[in-house]
Write a structure and sequence with these properties.
With 330 residues, this protein is an alpha/beta fold. Helix content is 44%, strand content 13%. It has two domains: 137 residues, Rossmann fold (3-Layer(aba) Sandwich), CATH 3.40.50.1370; 144 residues, Aspartate/ornithine carbamoyltransferase (Rossmann fold, 3-Layer(aba) Sandwich), CATH 3.40.50.1370. The structure holds phosphoric acid mono(formamide)ester and norvaline.
Length: 330
């Protein structure tokens, strides 16, 4: 398998074998990290990290993974760079591509990472756009494989806004990898028809399936993995909280909902999660709407079924694999 020079913009561009290769490489890099075996094979290289939206896991994963691989990092936030305001994406790509061996971008439209990829001349890694969150998917698959030993044939149920980055990407992942993807959401939160049709084609080949249900219990029935994400994503206006709360509260992941899934089912969430009043946003919502928890209850979040922190750690190992493979280290 040779992924040298490839961009990592969306899993749509990767075959099941390539995805598995990256997850296997991540597992190997994770083992080496735990055993203290150095992997600084990319010494002397440098990468740029562009974040137009906030981040804890993705930024830290890129930074730690880069340092473990021996690379230097430069972090650019929207206030500290000219990107998009005083310099076009194409010009930025040409400039950064002349100084760095790879560039991570987190921000808004998918067309921005595509534009960077067109002009940079070095691998571009999508650290989250409105449409896709591909590095998250590798961490999720690694987590599922660690817990179940195998991913093929498992059912993953996604509750909530399934038309955004995480929902779209999970549907692509499952349909390519032979998993059964079930959305539990009101119809207006279903992924777009074109993507659903494309994923159903992939699922036909892989032995997976895609189902869209408005009944949360039906979606969660016999699931191996129950997954949710925030109801309002970064970049969306605060005004939509009221509508989202009304629409998505029936799809909250509760202990009762978890009983519809298999006994050994796990709970996953890309994080950050609103499961208590430990956040500023959580407290504002509490004041306004009298809610203590949102997309997942505190009980499920802290239950033995919850694998969210293993999932978060796996972000680092999988991002390391993406950089190592696309920069030609392995
Ligand atoms: N899951 C995820 O992407 O987390 P951050 O927003 O903290 O990077
Ligand atoms: N859908 C969320 C994912 C965060 C990792 C967002 O875009 O804010």
């Amino acid at each position: 398998m040779n992924l040298k020079g490839r961009h990592f913009l969306t899993l749509k561009d990767f075959s099941a074998e390539e995805i598995m290769y990256l997850v296997d490489l991540a597992a190997e890099l994770k083992r080496k990290k735990k055993e203290g075996i150095p992997v600084d094979v990319l010494r002397g290289k440098n990468i740029a990290l562009i974040f137009e939206k906030t981040s804890t896991r993705t930024r830290c994963s890129f930074e730690v993974a880069a340092h473990d691989l021996g690379m230097g990092t430069t972090y650019l936030n929207p206030q500290a760079s000219q990107i998009g305001k005083k310099e076009s994406i194409a010009d930025t790509a040409r400039v950064l591509g002349s100084m760095f061996e790879g560039i991570e971008y987190r921000g808004f439209g998918q067309e921005i990472v595509e534009e960077l990829a067109k002009y940079a001349g070095v691998p571009i890694w999508n650290g989250l756009t409105n449409e896709y969150h591909p590095t998250q998917m590798l961490a999720d698959l690694l987590t599922i494989r660690e817990v179940f030993g195998e991913h093929k044939g498992l059912k993953l149920c996604y509750m909530g806004d399934a038309r955004y980055n995480t929902g779209n990407s999970l549907m692509i992942l499952c349909s390519k990898m032979g998993m059964h993807f079930a959305v539990g959401a009101p119809e207006k939160y279903f992924p777009n028809d074109e993507l659903v049709a494309q994923c159903r084609e992939w699922a036909k080949e892989s032995g997976g399936s895609v189902s869209l249900c408005t009944d949360p219990k039906e979606a969660a029935k016999d699931a191996d993995v129950v997954y949710t994400d925030v109801w309002v994503s970064m970049g969306e206006p605060d005004e939509i909280w009221a509508e989202r709360i009304e629409d998505l509260t029936p799809y909250r992941v509760t202990s009762e909902l978890m009983t519809c899934a298999k006994d050994k089912a796990i709970f996953l969430h890309c994080l950050p999660a609103f499961h208590d009043l430990g956040t500023e946003t959580g407290r504002i919502i509490h004041e306004k709407f009298d809610l203590d928890e949102m997309e997942v209850t505190d009980e499920v979040f802290k239950s033995s079924q919850s694998e969210v922190f293993r999932e978060a750690e796996n972000r680092m190992h999988t991002i390391k694999a993406v950089m190592a493979a696309t920069l030609g280290a392995f």
